[in-house]
C-alpha cells in the first residue's frame, strides 16, 4: 500500500504549506469504456471533490476524493472437454467423452471510492491513485452453443453420439447461474487528458482512463459436479438424464479502458500569505535612537 501512503503524505504536505495558493472544486463526471481480457463494457457516474495547490511554473498539484456508481457487463467464453464413466441398468460400462462451447454473461451494478493524486499544467490533467470497486446486484446467464455427448461401450466396441438413450443436450441451451465476479476489486486508476476553461469558474474536461486490478479475493469452490453431467441409465427404455452446472471459469485480472467526460465548478481560490512573526514598524535600530 505504498501508493496510498504516498498520496496521504502528499495531501498532508500541501495542507501544511503556508505559501501555496489553494483551489477547491466540485467535479461531476461520466465514464464509459470496455473491459479487456474478458470482454465487456462499463458505465459510471462519479462525483469528486478536488483540491489543488499552486506550484512553480503554473503547475497545480493536489488530490481528488470521489465516489461513483454505475453498471457493467463482463463476458466469458470457452470450451470444456470432459471424460468419465457410468454404468447402465445391466451393469455395462459407458465411457463418456463430452465437448462443450459456452458463453457466460455477468451483469452487475458497481459502487466505487477513489483517492487520486491530481496534477494539472496549462490544460493538461493527470490523475493517478487507488480505486476500490464493489460489485453488487450481480446476475449471470450461461449459454451453450455446442454440447457433443458420446457414449462408448468398451464391451461391444460401439460409440453412440448424441442419442437420447445415452444422453443428449439440445443446443443452444441457456440457464441462469451464479456470478463468478469477485466480491470486490482494488484497482490502480490512471486518467489523462485536457481541460477547457469556460466562463466564470466553470471547466469542461475529457480524459482517457485505465483501471488495472491490483488485488481481488479468490473464490474456492469444492464438490462441484461435472460441467455436463450424464446420470446412469436406471431402467430399460429410459433416457439418461443430463444436467448442466456453471462453467469452470477463473476470472482474469480486471482491466478496463475508456473515456471520461467531466464538468468542474471551482468552489474557492484562496492564497495564503507568509506568516509575519514581528511588527517591522515597531522595530527600531537602537543606534539610531541615541
The largest β sheet comes out as: 8 strands, antiparallel, barrel
Residues in helix, %: under 10%
Average pLDDT for all residues: 87
Structural category: mainly beta
Low-confidence stretches: 272-290
Percent range for β-strand residues: over 45%
Q: Please report the total strand number as a whole number.
A: 12
| Tally of helical segments | 1
Our measurement of the CA-to-CA distance between the termini, rounded to an integer number of angstroms, reads 64 Å
Estimate the global geometry from the Cα principal axes: rod-shaped
Give Rg in angstroms.
Answer: 31 Å
What series of H and E elements makes up the topology? HEEEEEEEEEEEE
Describe the strand arrangement of the main beta sheet, using strand numbers: 1-2-3-4-5-8-9-12
Note the topology:
Elements: H1 2-15, E1 21-36, E2 40-54, E3 59-87, E4 93-121, E5 124-153, E6 158-161, E7 173-177, E8 185-197, E9 202-215, E10 228-230, E11 242-244, E12 255-271
Antiparallel strand pairs: 1-2, 1-12, 2-3, 3-4, 4-5, 5-6, 5-7, 5-8, 8-9, 9-12, 10-11
Describe this structure in words.
With 290 residues, this protein is mainly beta. Helices cover 5% and strands 61% of the residues. It has one helix and twelve strands. It has one helix at residues 2-15, and strands spanning 21-36, 40-54, 59-87, 93-121, 124-153, 158-161, 173-177, 185-197, 202-215, 228-230, 242-244, 255-271. Strands 1-2-3-4-5-8-9-12 form an eight-stranded antiparallel beta barrel. Strand 5 (124-153) and strand 6 form a beta hairpin. The protein is rod-shaped. The termini are far apart. 25% of the residues are buried. Residues 272-290 have low confidence and may be disordered.
